[in-house]
């Protein structure tokens, strides 16, 4: 009703609003002599007046238009428009004969003008004079429960409110006349007229009440709140008058007006025009007041409503009594006068009789029977506080308030009879048709503003009910509480229902009043209630205590109950109070008692009449008196008295038993019952003689139930009942059960032959038994099956078509009855009795109509089916189901086809399928469903498919989800794009895959593990031999296999699965051969050297293999070593270049004989060649006597020319062999070399490539003195650095290989050659060092620029709102869009659903509980902080769903179900886990917050170092550096904590934020938990640091000041500059690398030359020394001299 009230208030505003503010609008209703009412409007007239002639002409024109529209041919008087006596007259009698002056009228109001044309004949009634059109279609809001009294009271309400405004000395009279001809209501209120302020229209126009605005004046004051401003809805008078009569004439006159204005309401017009767009205009007019009206209202104002009754008139006396009850405080009030005298505030007359003189009515009778003790009076003040956010001023009044007074009056028991029962007894003879009895009589009476709400007959208020379940005084309290009636008086703060017969049930004050003392008021906390009694404010607990104390006080002082018995009592202590119905610890047990002059004693047989007391409501009861119990001692007041009696039918041995022995006194109730003494005091307990007793006993025996009979179809038809269970035949599932089944109870004297009429009432028991129907079900007819409970109901007997004692069960409403095939058992039995029962069986079979095919329930558990290629699905048992899921039996075996399908595509036909029929013919069994499909790769990797069962040439009737996996590994296909190419030693196979198949050519499934056995291969990834198949059915070994065998060797790879070799693949490494291409003389002089011996590696075709190159840095080592019989001769290695290797020299021994020389590949020992050289001393002797030329010609070895200068070049300019003296120093021996770590000297190209390899350890020993010497000799312009002699791979490149003592000091110009070569080496070494320094700087700078670009891109992405020129809502939408793109994420599902109103309505509790997502609940001031915090939390926490309550913890399955439901609605899936944060259960901040901060930042102390200062670079705590989103800043938990104190304190805690990582290091001593820095440092907690960086896709929105950051254009320009600089650095790195390579090449050339120079000098020195040691010293000296 609150909505209706607000609706009518808005209508009132419309009526009170001026039509045109600022304009002058003059409205006139011109009443013509022919009864026509012509409305005229003049807006903003230019002249002060208009002529009468002009005005009348306009009226005439409009009158003609009105008559043309009516076209009703109604006879009307002629208007003489041309009369010379024409004039206008207003309501005050002013006449206008020449002109109408506008100054004589108030603008913006309606004025009545009557036209006179000089003819006496005129009319008093005018058509359509009053516009009563409602502003809205109010008929939908009209009350439906109107009665004659209610409608009449509505009219009296209007009159009472009218007369209440009369001044002192003015009569306040309300006179009602009710007779067969008319009903009239007359009041002496201020009346109405034709003016806008007091217009009579407002009485007849629905929704236009003038009294509703006075409601606020009726709030507050003193009880009983006699301020009769009843107006609420604005249609009371109109609807009430139309309810009482079809027409109503309303007449009214104000003190100022001379005329009586009247209008006529017509019910038919109201009904016809309601809800339409037509106007509802009523006729009316003006007349002179009558003499009786003047007499009744001496002050000259009144309102009168006259109706012709259309309802049956009530009894006049009863009407007078009821109206007196309704308005009793206004008729007889003793609370207004200070002297306490009874005062009549308003004269109420009904048919001339003053209601104050009427004796009768419920109020008067009730007042007579109350006690004279003090009443329990409470005052309530109810209010709804204004929202705290709306106003914080302490002076702001509550938005809504109301007041009530509760006066509880005690009605004691006197002379053994309850006073309330006496009230009922007195009211019924007076014609009050009260259907209530003592138990159901309303204990609450409510008046609003002094007016009784007659239908407000509530139960006791919660505080008036005893809440204790046990206790000594509980029974007294329960009994005495029913003797209290509460009279409630309320002010206008409480709203009534439209009929004003009760309070509006949904109004918050009504709910609060009804629950006063209950739990709902305490839980809702919407309405605040202040309770006072005697000026003292009470809590609910205090209220209950004081009320109960008052109850006991009234009981002790005014209740007149039994106090003594006629015999000596037996005292019973600590008896079973609950069973006996007593309250005292001490009870007196009597066997005789006297009440009201009559004695009652043990053993007396009595009849207790119906309604005598509690427990005897429906039937008379015969019983035997046994004992009388009196509470307390004899002098105790207010004790309880009870009767112990044994009902007829209970055997004597089952009655109560009183035992008195040494252990004490005890009374067992057993099958007897305990009744209150009021059963005797009420006169409804009468003695019976033996004859009557025996007759009742015999009658009882005959009426004892014997059997239960269920009526059949024939008997039910007689009773017009659609009944009878179908027990004769089996019914089909879905058959409709009978709507009702009827059972009757047969007495003991019944037999089928007794009567032919089975419905004879003599043989149907009609006693009040309760019969139970227990329906059970089992899914078959086999005896071993057990029945399951299906349905249970209990009914009492009723009648149908005059036949009583019928127990009718509505089985037609039992859910799912007869829908399941099986056996239904219907068992009928009496409640709490085993004397009679009846069972009926109904058998139900499955329906013949097939609804679906499906697997048996046991098979459903294994879905989806799983099998592998080559195997069979498990036996499938399927059956046919009807629409109720009953199995329909088959008639025979059917042919079934099985197909394996996937997305409508056929995968395979399953052949040789076997079909069998079960023994019970309920289902078929399909076996031998073997899978031979070879195309399972189509459904890879899920292998999900559908097994479709169908009959031939028909659509599948059953689609079974399944997974068909490939079979076990059976075959392996070796796949390589390098197929056909030969393998080479040390080769890494770049493309090599193992394709794994089952026996049906399907790739095996992912994850199958096999063992690879290799020979001649090694795995580069070092993860072992066991490998798993990938998602495509391959094992990819590309780039993982390296050939470890040599040339021409076999290699293999085997695949083992389950310890069996599945496949084996053998390969052969390509064959190579080492050949010596230089022709070596068969005979050589002993001690000579072989020069420039060339070797080649050729393939099987004999072609040179130019791929054989010594490239150590690329992992290819191809060197040659020479093996001879000489000791320590294999320390040298010679590099291959493009398949060719040249050995500069081989020194031959100085002995004669055969000398074998073997050349072998250093790593591939299969590449070797061995040749023999015969050494002869004769050739040595000849060489001493013959010319060198001949010797040279015989031993020519084609040594390439060297470019070095000096004596060595001159000595070695001749080709041939050289002699050697054993005393001269020779190259390093094997024991002096570290061959395992030998160093390669880069090649020195002098014609043919020649490379020498020396021991690193020896070189290191000899390097230091050489470096020192070289440093001394180097040019001072070059800075010496030890890295000059290092190759790019870090190995030492020596400037010389011998110490100075091992070298013969060169003479003359030879020293300058060494100095020049050494200077050049130092130059290029320094140049390389500078270039490498440049490279290092460039690489570092490139990394810095790359990091800067990454940071700029991140800042651009998280640009603050002001920089990106976007609103906060737009940036929020961007973050939302990112969240929505998170596939299969619950956060994405929620974000979409939260913007869909229909989805929100489906799950209102979930949507109301969720606050939002973490990423959307806060903003950050800077992009770097936003990114750092997002990295710290991680995406899982950023996408966390935040809820207010802990429902997600208590019932997580409910939230998961909602999310899955929303996902289904959106066509998405919900996978993985989702973080849900419940604010009620997380750790909350319990400290202080910063004052005057609307963001409620936490008052956290800054960290301090040991010296008490704040660490440098500390920016703040993360929990305070974010801002709560403005839409969620008001979110509070029940404890009043916001998101910062709960959510973000739980996420961040005391996380500290610093500028840089260095600042974090400096502040480690004062970081208690975690810290982050804006340059990417993250320390989750002490001891745990995150390294590296990551891309943050989801972050907090950034809102900051514009001047703090670069603009977007500036940032884009900065990014372009960084990219340009990065390009320049890349170019510099490439250029410097080229320059470095060039310098390295120059360095290697100079180094090779330097080494050659040393070698040449060494050879010359050796030659000189050898010549000095020969016998022919002079000749040698001469020869030497010639050489030099």
From TrEMBL:
Any Pfam family the entry gives: HATPase_c_3
Signal peptide: none
Polar residues bias spans: 1265-1276
UniProt-annotated stretches for the region Disordered: 1182-1212, 1257-1280
PANTHER family documented for this protein: EN/SPM-LIKE TRANSPOSON-RELATED, EN_SPM-LIKE TRANSPOSON-RELATED
Protein name according to UniProt: Structural maintenance of chromosomes flexible hinge domain-containing protein GMI1 isoform X1
Gene name per UniProt: LOC110783062
């Amino acid at each position: 009703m609150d909505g209706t009230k607000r609706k009518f208030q808005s209508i009132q505003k419309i009526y009170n609003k001026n039509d045109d503010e600022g304009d002058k609008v003059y409205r006139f209703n011109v009443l013509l002599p022919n009864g026509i009412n012509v409305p005229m409007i003049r807006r903003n007239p230019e002249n002060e007046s208009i002529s009468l002639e002009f005005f009348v002409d306009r009226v005439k024109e409009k009158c003609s238009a009105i008559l043309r529209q009516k076209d009703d041919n109604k006879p009307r008087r002629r208007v003489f428009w041309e009369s010379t006596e024409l004039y206008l007259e207003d309501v005050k009698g002013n006449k206008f004969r020449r002109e109408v002056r506008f100054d004589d009228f108030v603008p913006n109001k309606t004025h009545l003008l009557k036209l006179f044309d000089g003819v006496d004949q005129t009319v008093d009634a005018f058509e359509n004079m009053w516009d009563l059109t409602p502003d809205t279609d109010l008929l939908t809001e009209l009350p439906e429960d109107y009665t004659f009294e209610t409608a009449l009271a509505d009219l009296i309400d209007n009159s009472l409110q009218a007369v209440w405004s009369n001044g002192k000395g003015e009569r306040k009279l309300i006179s009602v006349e009710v007779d067969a001809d008319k009903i009239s209501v007359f009041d002496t209120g201020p009346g109405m007229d034709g003016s806008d302020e007091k217009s009579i229209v407002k009485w007849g126009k629905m929704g236009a009440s003038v009294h509703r605005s006075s409601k606020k004046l009726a709030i507050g004051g003193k009880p009983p709140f006699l301020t009769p401003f009843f107006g609420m809805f604005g249609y009371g008078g109109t609807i009430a008058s139309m309810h009482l009569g079809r027409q109503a004439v309303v007449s009214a006159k104000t003190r100022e007006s001379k005329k009586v204005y009247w209008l006529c309401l017509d019910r038919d017009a109201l009904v016809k025009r309601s809800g339409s767009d037509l106007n509802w205009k009523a006729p009316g007019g003006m007349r002179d007041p009558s003499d009786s009206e003047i007499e009744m209202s001496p002050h000259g104002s009144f309102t009168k409503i006259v109706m012709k009754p259309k309802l049956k008139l009530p009894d006049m006396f009863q009407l007078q009594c009821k109206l007196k009850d309704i308005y009793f405080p206004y008729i007889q009030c003793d609370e207004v006068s200070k002297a306490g005298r009874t005062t009549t505030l308003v004269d109420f007359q009904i048919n001339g009789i003053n209601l104050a003189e009427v004796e009768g009515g419920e109020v008067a009778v009730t007042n007579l029977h109350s006690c004279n003790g003090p009443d329990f009076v409470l005052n309530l003040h109810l209010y709804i506080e204004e929202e705290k956010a709306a106003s914080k001023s302490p002076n702001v009044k509550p938005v809504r308030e109301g007041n009530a007074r509760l006066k509880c009056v005690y009605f004691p028991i006197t002379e053994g009879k309850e006073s309330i029962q006496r009230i009922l007894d007195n009211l019924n003879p007076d014609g009050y048709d009260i259907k209530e009895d003592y138990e159901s009589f309303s204990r609450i009476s409510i008046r609003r503003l002094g007016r009784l709400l007659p239908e407000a007959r509530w139960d006791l208020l919660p505080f008036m009910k005893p809440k204790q379940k046990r206790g000594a005084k509980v029974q007294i309290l329960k009994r005495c509480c029913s003797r209290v009636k509460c009279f409630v008086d309320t002010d206008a703060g409480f709203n009534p229902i439209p009929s004003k017969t009760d309070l509006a049930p949904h109004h918050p004050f009504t709910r609060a009043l009804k629950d006063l003392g209950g739990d709902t008021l305490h839980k809702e906390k919407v309405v605040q209630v202040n309770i006072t009694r005697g000026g003292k404010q009470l809590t609910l607990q205090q209220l209950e205590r004081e009320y109960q104390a008052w109850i006991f006080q009234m009981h002790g002082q005014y209740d007149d109950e039994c106090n003594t018995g006629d015999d000596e009592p037996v005292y019973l202590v600590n008896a079973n109070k609950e069973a006996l119905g007593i309250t005292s610890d001490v009870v007196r047990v009597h066997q005789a008692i006297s009440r009201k002059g009559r004695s009652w004693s043990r053993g007396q047989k009595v009849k207790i009449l119906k309604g005598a007391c509690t427990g005897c409501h429906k039937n008379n009861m015969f019983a035997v008196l046994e004992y009388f119990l009196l509470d307390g001692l004899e002098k105790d007041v207010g004790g309880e008295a009870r009767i112990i009696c044994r009902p007829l039918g209970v055997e004597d041995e089952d009655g109560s038993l009183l035992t008195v022995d040494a252990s004490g006194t005890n009374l067992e109730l057993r099958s007897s019952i305990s009744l209150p003494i009021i059963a005797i005091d009420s006169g409804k307990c009468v003695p019976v003689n033996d004859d009557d007793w025996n007759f009742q006993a015999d009658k009882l025996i005959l009426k004892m139930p014997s059997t239960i009979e269920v009526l059949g179809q024939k008997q039910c038809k007689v009773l017009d009942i659609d009944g009878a269970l179908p027990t004769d035949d089996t019914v089909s599932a879905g058959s409709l059960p009978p709507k009702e089944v009827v059972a009757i109870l047969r007495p003991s004297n019944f037999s089928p032959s007794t009567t032919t009429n089975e419905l004879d009432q003599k043989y149907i028991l009609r006693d009040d038994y309760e019969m139970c129907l227990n329906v059970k079900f089992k899914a078959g007819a086999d005896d071993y099956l057990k029945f399951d409970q299906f349905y249970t109901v209990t009914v009492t007997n009723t009648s149908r078509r005059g036949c009583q004692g019928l127990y009718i069960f509505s089985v037609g409403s039992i859910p799912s009855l007869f829908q399941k095939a099986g056996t239904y058992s219907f068992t009928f039995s009496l409640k709490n009795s085993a004397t009679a029962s009846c069972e009926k069986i109904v058998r139900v079979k499955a329906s013949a109509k097939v609804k679906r095919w499906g697997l048996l329930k046991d098979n459903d558990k294994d879905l989806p089916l799983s099998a592998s290629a080559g195997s069979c699905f498990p036996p499938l048992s399927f059956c046919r189901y009807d629409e109720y899921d009953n199995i329909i039996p088959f008639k025979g075996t059917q042919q079934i086809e099985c197909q394996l399908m996937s997305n409508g595509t056929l995968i395979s036909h399953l052949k040789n399928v076997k079909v069998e029929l079960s023994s019970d013919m309920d289902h078929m069994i399909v076996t031998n469903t073997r899978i031979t499909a070879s195309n399972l790769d189509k459904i890879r990797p899920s292998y999900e498919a559908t097994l479709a069962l169908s009959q031939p040439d028909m659509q599948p009737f059953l689609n079974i989800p399944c997974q068909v996996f490939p079979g076990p590994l059976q075959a392996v296909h070796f796949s390589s794009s390098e197929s056909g190419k030969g393998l080479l030693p040390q080769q890494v196979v770049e493309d090599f895959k193992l394709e794994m198949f089952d026996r049906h050519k399907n790739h095996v499934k992912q994850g199958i593990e096999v063992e690879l056995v290799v020979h001649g291969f090694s795995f580069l990834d070092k993860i072992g031999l066991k490998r798993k198949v990938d998602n495509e059915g391959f094992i990819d070994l590309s780039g993982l296999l390296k050939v470890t065998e040599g040339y021409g060797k076999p290699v293999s790879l085997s695949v083992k699965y389950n310890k069996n070799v599945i496949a084996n693949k053998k390969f052969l490494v390509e064959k190579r051969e080492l050949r010596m291409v230089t022709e070596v003389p068969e005979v050589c002089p002993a001690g000579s050297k072989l020069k420039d011996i060339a070797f080649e590696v050729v393939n099987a075709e004999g072609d040179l293999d130019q791929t054989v190159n010594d490239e150590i840095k690329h992992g290819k080592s191809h060197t040659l070593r020479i093996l001879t019989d000489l000791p320590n001769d294999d320390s040298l290695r010679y590099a291959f270049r493009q398949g060719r290797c040249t050995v500069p020299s081989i020194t031959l021994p100085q002995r004669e004989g055969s000398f074998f020389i073997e050349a072998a590949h250093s790593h591939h020992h299969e590449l070797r060649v061995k040749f023999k050289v015969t050494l002869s001393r004769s050739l040595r002797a000849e060489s001493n006597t013959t010319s060198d030329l001949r010797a040279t010609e015989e031993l020519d070895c084609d040594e390439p020319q060297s470019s070095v200068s000096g004596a060595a070049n001159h000595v070695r300019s001749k080709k041939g062999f050289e002699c050697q003296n054993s005393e001269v120093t020779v190259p390093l021996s094997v024991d002096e070399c570290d061959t395992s770590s030998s160093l390669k000297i880069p090649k020195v190209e002098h014609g043919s490539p020649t490379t020498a390899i020396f021991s690193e350890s020896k070189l290191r020993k000899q390097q230091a003195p050489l470096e020192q010497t070289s440093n001394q000799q180097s040019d001072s312009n070059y800075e010496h650095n030890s890295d000059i002699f290092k190759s790019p791979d870090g190995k030492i490149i020596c400037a010389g290989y011998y110490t100075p003592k091992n070298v013969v000091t060169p003479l003359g110009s030879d020293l300058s050659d060494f100095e020049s070569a050494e200077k050049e080496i130092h130059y290029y070494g320094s140049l390389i060092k500078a270039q490498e320094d440049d490279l290092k700087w460039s690489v570092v700078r490139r990394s810095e620029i790359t990091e800067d670009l990454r940071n700029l891109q991140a800042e651009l992405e998280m640009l603050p709102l002001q920089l990106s020129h976007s609103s906060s809502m737009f940036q929020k939408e961007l973050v939302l869009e990112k969240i929505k793109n998170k596939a299969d994420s619950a956060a994405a599902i929620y974000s979409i659903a939260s913007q869909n109103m229909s989805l929100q309505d489906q799950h209102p509790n979930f949507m109301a509980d969720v606050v939002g997502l973490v990423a959307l609940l806060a903003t950050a001031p800077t992009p770097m902080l936003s990114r750092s915090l997002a990295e710290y939390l991680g995406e899982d926490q950023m996408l966390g769903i935040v809820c207010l309550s802990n429902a997600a913890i208590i019932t997580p399955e409910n939230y998961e179900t909602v999310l899955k439901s929303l996902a289904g609605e959106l066509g998405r899936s919900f996978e993985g886990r989702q973080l849900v944060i419940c604010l009620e259960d997380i750790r909350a901040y319990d400290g202080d917050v910063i004052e005057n901060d609307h963001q409620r930042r936490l008052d956290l102390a800054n960290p301090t170092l040991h010296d008490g200062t704040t660490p440098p670079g500390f920016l703040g705590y993360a929990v305070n550096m974010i801002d709560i989103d403005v839409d969620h800043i008001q979110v509070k938990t029940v404890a009043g904590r916001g998101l910062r104190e709960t959510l973000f304190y739980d996420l961040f805690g005391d996380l500290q934020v610093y500028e840089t990582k260095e600042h974090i290091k400096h502040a480690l001593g004062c970081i208690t938990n975690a810290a982050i820095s804006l340059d990417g440092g993250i320390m989750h907690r002490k001891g745990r640091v995150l390294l590296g960086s990551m891309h943050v896709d989801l972050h907090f929105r950034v809102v900051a000041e514009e001047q703090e950051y670069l603009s977007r254009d500036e940032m884009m320009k900065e990014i372009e500059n960084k990219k340009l600089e990065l390009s320049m650095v890349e170019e510099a790195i490439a250029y410097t690398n080229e320059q470095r390579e060039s310098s390295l090449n120059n360095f290697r050339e100079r180094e090779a030359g330097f080494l050659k120079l040393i070698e040449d000098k060494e050879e010359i020195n050796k030659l000189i020394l050898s010549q000095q040691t020969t016998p022919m010293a002079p000749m040698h000296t001469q020869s030497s001299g010639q050489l030099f």
